[in-house]
Amino acid sequence: SREKAPILKVSKLVKRFGGFHALDGLSFHVVPGEILGLVGPNGSGKTTAINVISGLYAPDGGEVVFDGTSSGGVASHRLVHRGINRTFQVPKPFLSLTVRENIQVALAYGGATGAPSIPELLEDFRLKEVADRPAADLNSAQQKMLDLTRALATRPRLLLLDELAAGLNPAELDWIAGRIKALASTGMAIIVVEHLMGFIEQITDRVIVLNAGKEIFEGTLATAVREPQVIEVFLGG
Ligand code: ADP
């Protein structure tokens, strides 16, 4: 899949918070149908990268190009219509609305032709039994799945998953790994931020290792874990 033209290209991205460089010249790309992992120690800039690519933050330098068009600094709701959507570490559904209503809102808002239907999303992400319960009643795994259906309802071509797997049990992890691979097999590009290395190894084609807001390695996770400079940052050199 790496011969395909990238759907996303990030070049020399900089994001500052005060004088601190959370992203300090980050460059990478992702192609359609690829699952790319962003890994690195706490504070290395993974979530910030997702936040900039999804339009939550404007970059302070560098470039983000999505589908051939500059997208850095474009507001999230516009990027949703262009084909970028994401999940959050801590999902924030409309708590008083039912699961079905939450998905309805996303479908109405996203307005993408060819978006999956509510019954399909409920079935695919194991939310059928809780479809008519308020989102406030869901456990954390179900809230994550609802957050994912909300993103998928807008039919993204680039999906950003921020700690989707955190808190899932091993059986749920296996199952969601299969679902994520199935999404990629439809041509969706997926960027995954996760701490669980087994999960990253199971689903990604390639990883970018970040340290201090920069890429220090690009390749498979199996290769990454044998690189001295990768080992050093993970062991807290
Ligand atoms: P990671 O996801 O790799 O753990 P983050 O991208 O969350 O790292 O954070 C990178 C650095 O930027 C951290 O030092 C963090 O404290 C800082 N940071 C992230 N977001 C903000 C913010 N909104 N305001 C101030 N500092 C932030």
Automatic annotation (TrEMBL):
<feature type="domain" description="ABC transporter">
    <location>
        <begin position="8"/>
        <end position="237"/>
    </location>
</feature>
<keyword id="KW-0067">ATP-binding</keyword>
<dbReference type="InterPro" id="IPR003439">
    <property type="entry name" value="ABC_transporter-like_ATP-bd"/>
</dbReference>
<protein>
    <submittedName>
        <fullName>ABC transporter ATP-binding protein</fullName>
    </submittedName>
</protein>
<keyword id="KW-0813">Transport</keyword>
<dbReference type="GO" id="GO:0005524">
    <property type="term" value="F:ATP binding"/>
</dbReference>
<dbReference type="GO" id="GO:0005886">
    <property type="term" value="C:plasma membrane"/>
</dbReference>
<comment type="function">
    <text>Involved in beta-(1--&gt;2)glucan export. Transmembrane domains (TMD) form a pore in the inner membrane and the ATP-binding domain (NBD) is responsible for energy generation.</text>
</comment>
<dbReference type="InterPro" id="IPR051120">
    <property type="entry name" value="ABC_AA/LPS_Transport"/>
</dbReference>
<dbReference type="GO" id="GO:0016887">
    <property type="term" value="F:ATP hydrolysis activity"/>
</dbReference>
<dbReference type="Pfam" id="PF00005">
    <property type="entry name" value="ABC_tran"/>
</dbReference>
<dbReference type="InterPro" id="IPR027417">
    <property type="entry name" value="P-loop_NTPase"/>
</dbReference>
<dbReference type="InterPro" id="IPR003593">
    <property type="entry name" value="AAA+_ATPase"/>
</dbReference>
<keyword id="KW-0547">Nucleotide-binding</keyword>
